[in-house]
Amino acid sequence: VFLVRNLLTLGFNTHAAACIFWALAQGSDFSEETWVGLQAPQLINATVSSQYTFSLYWSAITASTVGYGDFSPVSQGESLFTIFFVFANVIIVANIVGGVSALAAMADQELAHHRRVINDFEKMLTQERISDDVAHATRQYLRMQMNQAKADTERLPISVRTQIREQRFAD
Questions:
Q1: What is the DSSP string of 19-87?
Q2: Which of 12, 62, 80, 85 is 20 to 30 A from 161 in CA distance terms?
Q3: Is the pLDDT assigned to residue 89 strictly greater than 60?
Q4: Phi, psi values for residue 99, rounded to 5°
């Protein structure tokens, strides 16, 4: 849900920027003071799908901060919009990367906790000179508990697991 929500946000933002970037050029009648008039005059009489594709291309390249330079803002309005768009996308992408990192960290923390518990028992079993049979049974029990903890959360409905994850990592 987290990734889907953020990818949809990024997709909508990219789509909206493409439409706005085209509208800015169209609002100036595609003069040479616009990206279309100066860099892509063939788009003026092109199909709507071609116009949208080139606008979306600009938006995606700008959103990804690749910036090939084949289409760039020309007018002051286009430049100001591009600045806003780049900053907005940096925030969106940072949010996605941070969320993915938080999910990975959560899994690492749970694994680290289980390892600490097992290591603590290993020390106790060694220090107290517990027999091999009892030590083996203890290890099996700890592994079973670790697997049971994973299984318990897996039995929860996906919506509940998602809500738990979102609330654990809410800002």
A1: HHHHHHHHHTTT-TTSHHHHH-GGGTTS-HHHHHHHHHHHHHHHHTT---SSS---SHHHHHHHHHHHH
A2: 12
A3: yes
A4: -65, -45
156: DSSP letter? S
pLDDT digits (tens, 9 = 90+) for 114-140: 788 888 888 888 888 888 888 888 888
| pLDDT interval class at 3 (50, 70, 90) | confident
Residue 96: exposed, middle, or buried by beta-carbon count in 10 A (0-12, 13-18, 19+)? middle
Distance CA(151)–CA(149), nearest Å, equals 5
Tokens of 65: 């901060």
Specify burial of residue 25 (Cβ count, 10 A radius: 0-12, 13-18, 19+). Answer: buried
Spell out the residues 6+ positions from residue 51 whose beta carbon is closer than 8 angstroms to its own.
22, 43
15: left (phi over 0), alpha (psi -120 to 50) or beta: alpha
